[in-house]
Amino acid sequence: MNDPLLHLSVVYAPKARELAEVKLLMPAPCTVLQALQQSGLLVQFPEIDHHHARIGVWGRRVKLDQCLRDLDRLEIYRPLRVDPKVARRERFARQGSRGAGLFVKKRAGAKAGY
Length: 114
Fold this sequence. Notes:
By secondary structure, the chain is α+β, with helices and mostly antiparallel strands. It has helices at residues 32-39, 41-44, 84-95, and strands at residues 5-12, 20-27, 54-57, 60-61, 73-77. It has a five-stranded mixed sheet with strand order 2-1-5-3-4, with helices on one face.
């Protein structure tokens, strides 16, 4: 039985603007967990807890037991440092109501909201 090989890439960004990418050739029935273990990123970056980390294929979340297909890009996501809703509220509080929102760029002399 000659199983086809899957061409996979496993990527992780430990910091902003930094990327660790590993290309793999794996036998056909391959799960997400097997690809993660084979990549070596779990050893290289011990902060990755693959049981609780968010993992996706091409931007869609997947479970560890999902089978991969040829040319899949397996992505390990970092946890958010700041809740986006809280960050938006703080940014709005700093800018004020006139400097934020949909109508920031308005014509000179125009009424508010137009």
